[in-house]
Design goal:
Oligomer: heterodimer
Strand content of chain A: 15-25%
Number of domains of chain B: 1
Order of helices and strands of chain B: HEHHEEH
Number of domains of chain A: 4
Strand content of chain B: 5-15%
Number of strands of chain B: 3
Strand order of the largest sheet of chain B: 1-3-2
Number of helices of chain B: 4
Largest interface: A-B, 31 and 26 residues
Shape of chain B: globular
CATH superfamily of chain B: Winged helix-like DNA-binding domain superfamily/Winged helix DNA-binding domain
Radius of gyration of chain A: 38 Å
Structural class of chain A: alpha+beta
Helix content of chain B: 40-55%
CATH class of chain B: Mainly Alpha
Amino acid sequence: MLSELWSDLRYRLRAIVRRDRVEQELDDELRFHVERETDKLVRAGLSPNEAQRRARIAFGGVDRTKEEARDARGTMLFESILQDTRYAVRGLRAKPGFTAGIVLTLALGIGANAAMFGIVDRMLFRAPTYLHDAEHTHRVYLASTSAGHENVSAWTSFARYADLLRWTHAFSSIATFATWRIAVGDGDAARVTPVAGVSASYFDFFDAQPPLGRFFVAREDSVPTGSPVVVLSYAYWQLEFGGRADVLGKQVRIGHTLCTIIGVAPERFVGIDDEAVPAMYIPITTFLWDARSIDYSKNYGWQGRLLIARRRPQFTVAQATADLTTAFQRSWIAGNERNPARAVPVATARPRAMLGPVQLERGPLAGPEAKVVAWVSGVAAIVLLIACANVANLLLARAATRRREIALRLALGVSRGRLIRQLVTESLVLALLGGAVGLAVAQWGGAVIRALFLPNDVATSIFTDVRSLIVTLLVTMAAAMITGLAPALQAVRSDLARSLNAAGRDAGGRASRLRTGLLVFQATFSVVLLVGAGLFVRSLLNVHKLRLGYDVRPVLVVTDNPRGMKLTTAERSALDARLVDAARATPGVESATPVSSVPFWGYEEPYLFVSGVDSVSWRGDFVLQAGNPDYFKTMGTRIVRGRAFDAHDRADAPRVVIVSQGMASFLWPAEDAMGKCIRIGVDTAPCTTVVGVAEDLHMRALQGQKEYTYYVPIAQYTSAPGTLLVRVKGDAADYIEPVRRRLQHEMPGAAYVTAEPFQNMVDTKTQSWRFGATMFVAFGALALALAGIGLYSMIAYGVAQRRREIGVRIALGASSSNIVRLVVRGGLRLVVLGVVLGGVISLWAGKWIATLLFDETPTDPVIYASVAAILVGVSLLATAMPALGASRVDPNVALRAD
Amino acid sequence: MTDDKLDLPQGTLDLLILKSLSLEPQHGWAISERIHQVSRATLQIPQGSLYPALHRLERRGWIKAEWGASDNNRKAKYYELTRTGRKQLDAETDAWQRLTTAVSLVLDMG
């Protein structure tokens, strides 16, 4: 059986590869047969001529025999495909402009989809590289209720992690991890680098073997100090150590801990890179000890660790969740015992655990980004459909001019199936070319999108990514089917006799109706995309217009990192004061202040006590900000009532506080806030007196959250924050280096400063609107351009087809403007129909994206009106050219044409 | 002239070709001549089916072809039975004989 298959394959291969040779042999073989038969007959006494004649008759049709012998070779299908392909390629090469136009159209459509697939796959579907047993691996979320509102978090404390590890049994492994940007290296070579602190169990979640050295083990990840060991990422090893094998045993300063390199993670290993792609991995215990050097093993308040867990297969998700919840409640009680002052009973807090997919974007905390990306992918699919409609339209137009040729071939007996196959082959060749170019488009476009919106992402090449390649191929095949089938079906359905007679003169009938439908479809979906683009652009504008309560562009955030220098609070304050002076002395700097909180980045939220208001801190987010007398000038926050801080607000002066407007009206709705008393930290703290009210500001979110800010003078603040805000003239991004270099002079020892524009912190919050606006506008413009080109080519083609009719009209006295109106009206009717349909679809679809917009209603009439105007404008432009051409038709020429 | 000739039942052509090749390698014309002679001119192989059949058998690997000089020194394509071809011949001969015996038995029925 096997040998038969093998022989079969070998035979067919030879028939294909050495086709000419095999044909020649068949010729020789048959000729030999006839010659022998002739010989025989000559010997029997016939004349040579007569013998040959009889031999031929006896043999029968040579060509039929050959055809059957070829059939017996079993390569007919392949050969006809080869022939169709050759035919298609020849046809396409004959019209390079037409071909290039179609290939480019398809490339844009396919490329858009391939690029978006790469991003969606990365964000939502693909399990992290090397993750092993993704099915049983979960992200752990912990939820508790306060003030009737359940807060879900993926971040927790090390103490909680240790409790869950100890008190659960449904999991074979639980790992905790966090990635922070900390200083790596010594002296001038020190760089802020993303470093991951991971528990030793973390590596068990992956099928990853270190190409060099080893990962660290539980013994090296021990509470509280851990061991000073580090595993480098492959990329960092290549970049900083040139991939040398002798790095093992070398030492690197991470934070202030000197760590020994014990291994290198494999290429493309990034772990679970929620926060950043780590450059290196150290034990979580080492990581925490380096950060605070306190015993954190019972500290439930120090949060920021993420959790993943592997469920034992014999437990269902529900059972495992229940197990985890029980452990969490026990841990909650332990936390209450640890800190009785802030204890909240289990019955009130209702702590519970949840298991979700490993990817944060698929869990309960998914940001708007994932949803916007999903929408934009849908938009990419629509762009592809519009592109396909365009190509189908062009092919239909061409098929109409080829009607005589096709009818002739049908008349000559070519089967309809064969003809369809040939026409579809042609679209397939076009689509494959489009797909190939589309890959390049996707690689380039994907890189741009990633650079703009996914700065943490690892660079990948679409050409080596199997999943992307498969999807691109599928999309390409779909495009080939969509674009090829309509022209093919239409071509073979045509009436033979009419086509042969009419010479393709009549443009009416079914074909035209199909093309009209495609055009209306294009217009409709262009409207939908443009409406989407309009909504996102308006949202983005609204975000930009939003008064945050401070200025962003001229502010630079400077962080100083003492790096193991043990400074007392007084020394730290003195250092901050020196840094403020140094910053002020830098050219271009207007003012500077130390701060305890930075909006969208880091907040200080001590407990608050106000007489007459129960449990204030449970009723909203109260963020404490500390600053010097220049604070309000530096941030650009306006004082509404009372005064800002001044030089008299020293440590020994009466304690003062400034509250935000919202906070004032929340705490004292019916009274004047000025002169009221707030106790900060504990209820026995001395009174701080309200001396001013400042405008409200956005500290943690841009939308819908009860957040309040209050301010104390830095001199009366209990600790030294180590963060500075510096206001410059102009754009902060231009001052990063001058400011950093000037301030670095003030830093003692190995300590260093980093500077980052405030804009970067704010941008992470506006990302989803920026992404939505950019992508919707890009794709909407693409769709509009395609629809415009489609309309133009259809009208131009229609005019060419109707030359005779137009000629007759002109001969009968129609004026140029009559003709222009006639042509334009035809095109405009379709577009108006598209605008109406698109408007209806947009209104219906609008409710789904309402939550993704910012202060914008999805039924905004301004946007609908503008989109309608744009579409009508573009279609006027697209029809005007052919219409003018039509008005110049010379009846003498047109009527004599055939 | 046509009266004493029989149409070949479906599938028997392959068997006849394999049988006539079992003695020695032969070219197409010789195969048709031999069958014609041995069957006492009863079986006339339609030329149109002979060559497609030969190519089909070759594809299956039951016979193999080689170019050689014919008796009158012309280039001819000789077919030869392969080992699987020989097994196939045995199997098909056996099947054929059982079939004809069975058919005879039925026809001889009282």
